[in-house]
């Protein structure tokens, strides 16, 4: 054994030990601080996510510029790791090479892949560095992100690639007979080195090897201290995520309010979050994609979903070493945190007294969220920022009764009147007067059963504009001869506003009342024109034992058209229509085409135009997450921002498929002094109803 | 400091009322009930004193049938310490009868402050608070919209027609609370859970003699719906005509 060989073995053992120690700390912090959560169900769906979102980089590629660049680096990393393993094993067992164990064609393919990916990664890294240092895209700024960290990591990756190529080139120059066209770049470079002495070439080769091998170990050990920890955590994080299933997308977690000994509801600190939220925080690369699509952030509010993740990590790193008794000198350097702590107290007692809520994340940020889910949709490593926001809101309301004062009347009215506005529940069915629409009670009395129950929702029942949507949809149903009923006075708010505003107690009260009513009538199929009712009853009521088939009116109308039940006149003007995607219909439930499709079929001469942000990238109208009941005083109004985009398409009509979007976009149009009509898709279709034969 | 807050359970005002068949009461079917708004501000006032001085005990007293327990629990969920239900089958109309029952409960309780809402949303008598003060022989200040305490004296502000009045009074005292003093806190789930374990005593109310009763109740006359006569200048003559002949305001 040479001295160099011995030293290398020692270095490998030491660096792997240190890395394992830090990795173990990270896992221990996450599991001992976080609350238990089961993330091992449905392995097949998880493996699918791992392949599509992880390996195929589906979400990364949503960004047309950075996407392909990052995907190149990622795929390069996957391929080059095989070569890295060879180099490290070579250091431990000199003379080892894959050539000895692989058949020749496979080995040649292997060395070619190494070479090509090294060049690809090098090129991508060069462009990424240029972006970081020169272009500085907006989304990479703000929230005190660790830009220096990114530059360091990119430089390391670049240096690894360069040394990999010089390693080959010096070797070929030294032993020209070993050259192979399967390493074309190294081969070309070796000709440049041709004039050098054998000693120089040998030194060059040795230096390249040591530089490359040591840098790999340095890189590995630096990861736990860097936001680039995602290199290690993103794949496990994608596997363990629920953001693209398994389970219902976007459903808030079930909360057992009656649980024996339950004293904490929601979360005010990392100790009350699930461990997966903590793993999310390790995995955040601070790429800012989430913040760049956040309607609150775009319009100048304090909220930034990226900051939520960075703060969670910072707080975890502040608390975890203290809470788990890691007091070693080198344990003081926080892992994955770096600078930029918002609280970061030096003394242990102060740090123990901090909480994620207030010390890091303020109430103002939390209440700015519209629960639009754009951040979750965008995050390339499947982080659920909204989960943390929702848990913190729950703590604010359920534990501390802290919320914007303007939502208290909504809470009180929901409790008393079953609707967020103080209307007489007896007036719920007033919109339907004279339309000959039976209530469930009336129908049951006649000994009949409806085909579907039309769930009208509070907007459709009480809001003057939305009542017209209820009328239009009822006319569509009647034209298609659908036998339907409404609940009338027995319907209550589905509870979504209460739940999204953190008031789980009130939510469960409303939901259980509704479930009791629906089950009493044996309701099986529900149609509704409100995406919030649709999502809540269909996707979240099962948590409380309410199981119904719930259909949004867009899909239901499409079905009626498929079945040729809808008499359409086939006329209509050649209108240009811009459709605005509702978050709870689109991102929460993946329904993007049905609203568009139904309008196209009803209005064959129509031209559908799209604002730049559409479908899964659509911008929220600003009403979700209970924002409908809160004041919006900071920055630009979200509905105005969205309406401007919609009007800029030059459309004659703006179409929506949600009564809340209707209010927001309707107000936006008024604020713009525009007279472009805003119609619900059911109103567009009701206008085209033909003679009822 | 020991504070008693007397609260009443009243129907929610967002719902339209119907007169019960007997003709002198409201039909309670379909009505939602909750704490009287003025009383919730009285509870809040007591709790704000308790927030500053945690040694304060806040006792909720409510006269009514067993359904008032729900209302008392709400006040306990807001943060009051214990509750007392003075049980009756029906709340009588005669304020003095109620005041006797309350005074019997409060007497000898050692309360420094006894708070009421200035009136109830349903019967709007505004009498019981003042009557209890009288029966207990304590100073009474009604309809206050600002309250400050300093040792054994208190000062309060009252909104009066065209101005404001500042008053001082010694403790113990009986106060009735007007709008504007505060906004009542929303009970957190934590408080609702805690309230389930707080003591709530039920005692039969010792009502005083009832000498006043309601003989008849009527809904206000329905207002005729608005009429659109026309648009623009051509409608003016008819409008003027109608304002003179029908509305008789010109
Ligand atoms: S859900 Fe929407 S509003 Fe809330 S943080 Fe995410 S992107 Fe922003
Ligand atoms: S949460 Fe996801 S999208 Fe947002 S900055 Fe972190 S990694 Fe990027």
State the domain count of chain B.
Answer: 1
Under CATH, the topology of chain B can be stated as Rossmann fold
Secondary structure class of chain A reads mainly alpha
For the sheet with most strands of chain B, the description reads: 9 strands, mixed
The helix tally of chain B amounts to 6
Percent helix among the residues of chain B? 25-40%
CATH superfamily of chain B: HUPs
Please give the order of strands in the largest beta sheet of chain A. 2-1-3-4
Which word captures the global form of chain B? globular
CATH-derived topology of the largest domain in chain A: Fumarate Reductase Cytochrome B subunit
Q: What CATH architecture of the largest domain in chain A would you give?
A: Up-down Bundle
| Low-confidence region ranges of chain A | 338-343
| Total E-strand runs of chain A | 8
**Tally of DSSP helical segments of chain A:** 29
Number of E-state strands of chain B: 11
- Unreliable spans of chain B are none
Strand line-up across the major sheet of chain B = 9-8-7-10-6-1-4-5-11
How would you characterize this protein structure?
The complex is a heterodimer of chains A (693) and B (250). In chain A, 53% of the residues lie in helices and 4% in strands. Chain A is built from 29 helices and 8 strands. Chain B is an alpha/beta fold and 250 residues long. Chain B has one domain: HUPs (Rossmann fold). Helices cover 26% and strands 27% of the residues of chain B. Chain B has 6 helices and 11 strands. In chain B, strands 9-8-7-10-6-1-4-5-11 form a 9-stranded mixed sheet, sandwiched between helices. A two-stranded antiparallel ribbon of chain B has the order 2-3. The longest helix of chain B has 16 residues, at 37-52. One iron/sulfur cluster binds at residues 293-296, 303, 305, 369-375, 385-386 of chain A.
């Amino acid at each position: 054994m040479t001295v160099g060989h011995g030293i290398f073995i020692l270095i490998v053992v030491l660096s792997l030990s240190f890395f394992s120690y830090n990795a173990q700390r990270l896992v221990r912090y996450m599991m001992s601080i976080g609350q238990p959560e089961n993330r091992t169900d449905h392995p097949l769906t998880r493996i699918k996510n791992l392949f599509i979102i992880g390996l195929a980089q589906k979400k990364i590629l949503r960004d047309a510029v950075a996407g392909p660049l990052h995907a190149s680096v990622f795929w390069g990393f996957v391929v080059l790791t095989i070569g890295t393993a060879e180099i490290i094993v070579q250091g431990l067992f000199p003379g080892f090479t894959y050539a000895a164990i692989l058949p020749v064609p496979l080995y040649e393919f292997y060395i070619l892949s190494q070479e090509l990916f090294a060049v690809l990664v090098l090129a991508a890294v060069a462009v990424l560095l240029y972006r970081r240092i020169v272009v500085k895209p907006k989304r990479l700024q703000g929230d005190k992100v660790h830009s220096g960290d990114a530059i360091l990591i990119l430089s390391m990756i670049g240096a690894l690639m360069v040394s990999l190529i010089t390693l080959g080139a010096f070797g070929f120059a030294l032993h020209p007979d070993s050259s192979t066209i399967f390493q074309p770049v190294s081969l070309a470079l070796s000709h440049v080195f041709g004039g050098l002495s054998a000693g120089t070439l040998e030194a060059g080769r040795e230096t390249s090897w040591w530089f490359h091998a040591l840098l790999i170990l340095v890189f590995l050990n630096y990861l736990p201290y860097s936001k680039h920890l995602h290199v290690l955590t993103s794949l496990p994080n994608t596997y363990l995520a629920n953001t693209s299933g398994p389970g219902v997308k976007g459903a808030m977690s079930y909360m057992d309010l009656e649980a024996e000994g339950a004293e904490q509801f929601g979360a005010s600190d990392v100790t009350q979050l699930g461990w997966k939220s903590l793993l999310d925080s390790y995995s955040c690369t601070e790429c800012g994609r989430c913040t760049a699509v956040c309607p609150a952030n775009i319009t100048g509010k304090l909220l930034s979903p990226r900051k939520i993740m960075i703060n969670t990590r910072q707080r975890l790193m502040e608390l975890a070493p203290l809470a788990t008794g890691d007091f070693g000198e080198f344990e003081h350097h926080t892992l994955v945190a770096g600078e930029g702590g918002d609280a970061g107290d030096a003394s242990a007692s102060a740090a123990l007294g901090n909480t994620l809520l207030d010390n890091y994340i303020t109430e103002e940020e939390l209440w700015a969220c519209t629960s639009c889910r754009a951040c979750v949709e965008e995050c390339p490593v499947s982080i659920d920022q909204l989960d943390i926001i929702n848990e913190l809101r729950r703590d604010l309301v359920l534990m501390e009764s802290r919320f914007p004062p303007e939502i208290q009347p909504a809470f009180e009215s929901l409790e008393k009147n079953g609707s967020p506005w103080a209307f007489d529940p007896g007036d719920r069915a007033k919109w339907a007067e004279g339309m000959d629409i039976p209530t469930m009670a009336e129908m049951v009395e006649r000994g009949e059963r409806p085909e579907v129950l039309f769930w009208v929702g509070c907007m459709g029942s009480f809001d003057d504009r939305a009542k017209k949507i209820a009328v239009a949809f009822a006319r569509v149903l009647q034209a298609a001869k659908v036998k339907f009923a409404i609940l009338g006075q027995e319907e209550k708010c589905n509870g979504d506003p209460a739940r999204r505003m953190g008031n789980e107690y009130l939510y469960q009260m409303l939901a259980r009342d509704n479930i009791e009513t629906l089950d009493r009538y044996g309701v099986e199929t529900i149609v509704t024109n409100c995406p919030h009712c649709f999502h809540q009853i269909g996707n979240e009521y099962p948590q409380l034992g309410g199981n119904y088939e719930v259909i949004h009116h867009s899909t239901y109308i499409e079905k009626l058209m498929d079945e040729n039940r809808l008499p359409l006149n086939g006329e209509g003007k050649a209108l240009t229509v811009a459709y605005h995607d509702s978050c709870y219909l689109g991102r929460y439930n993946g329904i993007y085409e049905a609203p568009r499709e139904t309008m196209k079929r009803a209005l064959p001469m129509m031209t559908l135009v799209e604002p730049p942000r559409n479908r899964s990238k659509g911008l929220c109208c600003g009403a979700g997450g209970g924002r409908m009941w809160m004041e919006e005083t900071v920055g630009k109004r979200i509905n105005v921002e969205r309406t401007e985009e919609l009007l800029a398409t030059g459309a004659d009509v703006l179409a929506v498929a949600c009564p809340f979007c209707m209010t927001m976009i309707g107000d936006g149009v008024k604020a713009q002094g525009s007279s472009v009509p805003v119609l619900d898709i059911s109103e567009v279709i009701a206008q085209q109803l033909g003679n009822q034969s | 400091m020991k504070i008693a807050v007397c609260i009443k359970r009243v129907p929610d005002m967002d719902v339209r009322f119907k007169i019960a068949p007997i003709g002198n009461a409201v039909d309670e079917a379909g009505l939602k009930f909750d704490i009287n708004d003025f009383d919730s501000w009285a509870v809040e006032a007591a709790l704000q004193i308790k927030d500053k001085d945690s040694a304060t005990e806040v006792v909720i007293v409510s006269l009514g049938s067993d359904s008032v327990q729900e209302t008392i629990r709400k006040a306990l969920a807001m943060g009051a310490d214990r509750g007392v239900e003075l049980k009756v089958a029906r709340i009588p109309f005669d304020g003095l009868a109620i005041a006797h029952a309350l005074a019997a409960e409060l007497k000898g309780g050692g309360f420094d402050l006894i708070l009421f809402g200035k009136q109830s949303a349903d019967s709007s008598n505004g009498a019981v608070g003042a009557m209890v003060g009288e029966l207990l022989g304590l100073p009474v200040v009604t309809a206050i919209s600002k309250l400050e305490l300093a040792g054994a004296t208190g000062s309060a502000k009252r909104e009066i027609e065209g101005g404001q009045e500042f008053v001082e009074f010694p403790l113990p005292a009986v106060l009735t609370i007007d709008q504007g003093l505060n906004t009542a806190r929303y009970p957190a789930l934590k408080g609702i859970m805690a309230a389930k374990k707080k003591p709530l005593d039920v005692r039969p109310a010792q009502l005083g003699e009832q000498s006043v009763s309601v003989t008849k109740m009527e809904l206000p006359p329905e207002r005729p719906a608005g009429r659109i006569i026309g648009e623009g200048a051509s409608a003016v003559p008819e409008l003027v005509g109608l304002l003179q002949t029908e509305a008789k305001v010109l």
